Amino acid sequence: MRKLRILPAGEKPSAAPARLASLTHHHLVSLHDLVPQEVDYLLRLARHIKAFPSHYRTALDGRSLALLFEKPSLRTRVTFELGMGQLGGQVIYLGPQEVGLGKREAVKDVARNLTRWVDGVMARVFSHQSVMELAEYSSVPVINGLSDFEHPCQALGDFLTLLEVKGALAGLTLAWVGDGNNVAHSLIYGAARLGVKMRVATPPGYEPDRSAVADARREGGDIQLTHDPGEAVAGADAVYTDVWTSMGQEEEASTRERIFQPYQVNAQLMRKAGSRALFMHCLPAHRGLEVTNEVIDSPQSIVYDQAENRLHIQKAILVALLS
Ligand code: CP
Ligand code: NVA
Q1: For residue 50, what are the contacts with CB-CB under 8 A and spacing of at least 6?
Q2: Looking at residue 1, what is its pLDDT?
Q3: What is the CATH number of the domain that holds 180?
Q4: CA of residue 275 to ligand 2 center, whole Å
Q5: Which of 130, 149, 195, 295 has its Cα between 20 and 30 A from that of 15?
């Protein structure tokens, strides 16, 4: 794998990466399904698309993407809708009240219907099983726009952001503080593919999935698990947190707020990381819970760069899978 390196300020990537055929008609359900070369390719393509958006204005001319949402969204919806439009394609938005995935209609029938009309499906679902089943019965690419187990588009956008800010990814240390959740799983898989070390601090009982950690370690991932946030962040290049209560876990909110309190990312914890450490969050943030205003609004925070890069990385994913 070629080492990813950022270009000097102001210089744009001179050429698009050579097309990687293995991604055409591929699903993106989990980052575990991508090999390092494919992750590297998506990051390179995203950088080229970001630098030369007009070159890609007709890349998906006439293509269509169904956006299937079982849960709310700001970033994922806006960036997929805008991204498809900027590539010459169109989207059909199907909100939480419309499809009744697995309730009004079996997941496999939803997949078999959509496949007859559209060129791709982006799905945000409660159960990871649903997005896996959509992929199994769909003959067009299925993109996971967040499930209870993974959020691959988020993690890819985050690595693009880290690459831009830090200049290179291999050898960086990313500290995760909070819940061992969907975003954590995708970062763990992605980090293993990019040579990024991960230190994960969670309360006991909220560790990331054991098999995800074991898979990533088998693939060369350097992942340390701890219950001590101070230990996780010491000397890290970036400190990442997410909500303590994910969508679908609302009934556990008050218990979680109590248990996760020592895992708040505040100025005291950021001091342990050091003044050069970045602060990251996938958003939406619950200000005053997992992160203080002082940290999320500080110069160390790159959360809105992460949000912007969802657009660019997803355009790369769409071009790679649908064209
Ligand atoms: N980070 C993210 O996926 O945001 P939304 O839930 O608003 O789409
Ligand atoms: N872990 C959060 C991420 C939101 C983008 C959730 O699943 O609600």
Answers
A1: 309, 312
A2: 47
A3: 3.40.50.1370
A4: 27
A5: 195
Task: Say yes or no: 156 and 228 in one domain.
Answer: yes
**Ligand 1 atom having least distance to the Cα of 79:** 8
| Nearest alpha carbon to residue 190 among 229, 153, 224, 235 | 153
Positions of the chain with pLDDT under 70: 1-11
pLDDT at 13: 74
Let me know whether 201 and 318 are in one domain: no
Global confidence as pTM: 0.96
Q: Does residue 151 carry a catalytic annotation?
A: yes
Q: Give yes or no: residues 124 and 156 share one domain.
A: no
Q: What is d(CA 275, CA 300) in angstroms, rounded to the nearest whole number?
A: 8
- Which protein residue's CA is at the shortest distance from atom 6 of ligand 1? 73
Residue 290 is given by DSSP the state T
Same domain? For 118 and 159 the reply is no
Distance 276 CA to ligand 2 centre (A): 27
Q: Ligand 1 pocket by C-beta < 6 Å: which residues? A: 73-76, 146, 154, 282-284
